[in-house]
Amino acid sequence: MRFIFFYLSMAITPLSYADNIIVNGTRFIYPAGSSEITIQMTNMASTPSLAQIWLDEGDPDVLPERISTPFIISPPIARIDSQNGQSIRIKKQEGQDISISDRESLWWLNILDVPAIDNNEMKDGAGTLNMAIRSRFKFIWRPAGLGDRVDAESKLELFVSGNNITIYNPSPFFITIVDIKTDSDKGLLEEGEMVAPKSKAKLKIKEKIPAGKDLVVQSVNDYGGMVETKITTHG
């Protein structure tokens, strides 16, 4: 019997699954006032899965054992039986300060799903392909005193020049832009973009837009829902 182990890495935003494992969110916010946050995983497959969970700082190629973050994940490895769930607790370590306090900080939550081999599908002399799927979710640390996240999109500014649009985010929050639409409901972006706090992002758009035009910015809120905000462009 030959076993082939195949590892596939996925960076996902709108989907909340790691192959057989369903996760109860598309992004996870850790408010500074909370002692910990809990993430729920459920194995929807007919066989057990082994899940490894870790955080990285943005480089998906760094091995988990080489990464140091101010958070503790418990448990970091868990067996999840078929149709069963597993809670993961993430807690900030005592004495580990996060130096940036005037805006959010971003890590990435990794879930590696290694499904078990189904003995019923194994045949003598046949090769078996086993796929381990890694999914990555946004994990955001939210310091105290940043104000209300609900109005963050209304503070965005749009600057147009030819077939480019620059999005300025003056707020202390990360804002994920899904698309920008005209009054005729035409989408302008080829793909979405996450704009960091107090930062700019320059993107290509499908058509030239004049200054003074109202556009609808589609973004994602803390709960994964769509938010639409009308913003007038600047030159």
Please characterize this protein's 3D structure.
With 235 residues, the protein is mainly β. It folds into two domains: 21-121 and 128-142, Immunoglobulin-like, CATH 2.60.40; 153-233, Immunoglobulin-like. The protein is 0% helix and 51% strand. A hairpin with a 5-residue loop joins strand 17 and strand 18 (226-234).
Give a short summary of the structure:
The chain has 235 residues and is mainly β. The protein has no helices and 18 strands. A seven-stranded mixed sheet has the order 15-14-17-18-12-13-16, with no helix packed on it. Strands 1, 4, 6, 8, 10 and 11 form a six-stranded mixed sheet that branches.
CATH class division of the largest domain: Mainly Beta
The figure for the number of domains is 2
pLDDT averaged residue by residue:
88
Note the overall shape. globular
Q: What's the gyration radius in Å?
A: 21 Å
Series of secondary-structure elements, N-terminal to C-terminal: EEEEEEEEEEEEEEEEEE
Low-confidence stretches: 1-17
The total count of strands amounts to: 18
What is the CATH homologous superfamily assignment of the largest domain?
Immunoglobulins
Strand content: over 45%
Helix content: under 10%
Q: What CATH architecture label of the largest domain applies? A: Sandwich
Largest sheet strand order: 15-14-17-18-12-13-16
Structural class: mainly beta
The helix tally amounts to: 0
Main sheet record: 7 strands, mixed
Quote the CATH topology of the largest domain: Immunoglobulin-like
Q: Report the span from N to C terminus.
A: 66 Å
